[in-house]
């Protein structure tokens, strides 16, 4: 894929970039290794100061950063601004908490003194996607840099200006040159970077094929990986639920980022006693959504990031319909220039159709009717993925069962699945492994060193 800015709302190619040459890659890897030798011993206070400065810079120019995202991948402006603000939050969170998370832990043993200490690994490669082009990077970088690692970013090829802006933020914030570097390279260069001895570990957020390729390459080098891949998360609404709140949240849960979120609710599993009401109200709310220019403040749904995403989504919808699903609303691309897809709701989804098993990365809700909680849990778990489930109930026994039985990295009861710097984030099954954020996230890329002293 060419490294370029192509406005998804118009199809216009605005800027192209040349990928780094072999010698440029070599120079950047050398710099990363050299700067790490000093940076690893920087004090927590100094690193916190730089990271807090990065938060300030993000907030100062949030409109400018938001616009870069919107122009490159089509995110509506209000979501883009909120994303920049959240990046500032994760910077401040780790600036404050990293010292506590990485403090030595004393352990009683046969030593005079034994403890665990956390030490940085070195250069960590982050292969990141376009869907939250600032957030995905900051949630990697804030803990990684506070732990004393240095970061190498290979961003998605359709968001190069975001990638360069992020590198500049870290530089302006005061981090030494080379502590965070953007590598403008194609996916075909990733294996070479992983194979390099100066790169110690890698993280990837994106599709399953990309995750498999990265993990296979890293596995051959015995290097640790964290993978945050796709999801087809359930949104379960049981009879006792507050229906009004559930429907309102269902819209946000599915439509955030024009439907292009790994933790978006994708399969709505609703008790049959409330199914008709839920469906009618959801359709009404979908009708009210404004599709159009993502630069306008009141736009709810922008274009999908690339023509390929649009084509794939439409193929999944058409195949699911061909096999017997019913379209309640939408069901096709919008009649607009650019990669727009209509807000869509499908129901009566056959078990052998893409709607029952695949991730739909766009504004398409898949509705399923179930008799009771047993059926709901069974259907929710009948998925190759397991990222973040949402369930709505006011019965404590149902709540207990959901906590025990739902197969996912996270379960949100009576709320929207969201990432939050305070809470660990990640999946099970084909959604990936490892955790980001919170104290668990900062412990992924450190040497958990045991010290035993007699
Ligand atoms: P990709 O997984 O292809 O892209 C994500 C990142 O991985 C990009 O930086 C990409 O680089 C890189 N990459 C791609 N292939 C490889 C590889 N073989 N080895 C190493 N790195 C690689 O996502 P797409 O943009 O193609 O989106 C396809 C689907 O992926 C979506 O429809 C959605 O289902 C899922 N997805 C999930 C996301 C999530 O948040 N979990 C985010 C984005 C996508 P480059 O851009 O240069 O190809």
TrEMBL record:
GO molecular function, one term: succinate-semialdehyde dehydrogenase (NAD+) activity
Gene3D superfamilies recorded: Aldehyde Dehydrogenase, Chain A, domain 1 (3.40.605.10), Aldehyde Dehydrogenase, Chain A, domain 2 (3.40.309.10)
EC number: 1.2.1.16
Highest taxon of the lineage: Bacteria
One Pfam family linked to the record: Aldedh
Keyword NAD: no
Alphabetically ordered keywords of this record: NADP, Oxidoreductase
InterPro entries in alphabetical order: Ald_DH/histidinol_DH, Ald_DH_C, Ald_DH_N, Aldehyde_DH_dom, ALDH_GabD1-like, GABD/Sad-like
Domain Aldehyde dehydrogenase: 3-451
Homology family: Belongs to the aldehyde dehydrogenase family.
Name assigned to this protein: Succinate-semialdehyde dehydrogenase (NAD(P)(+))
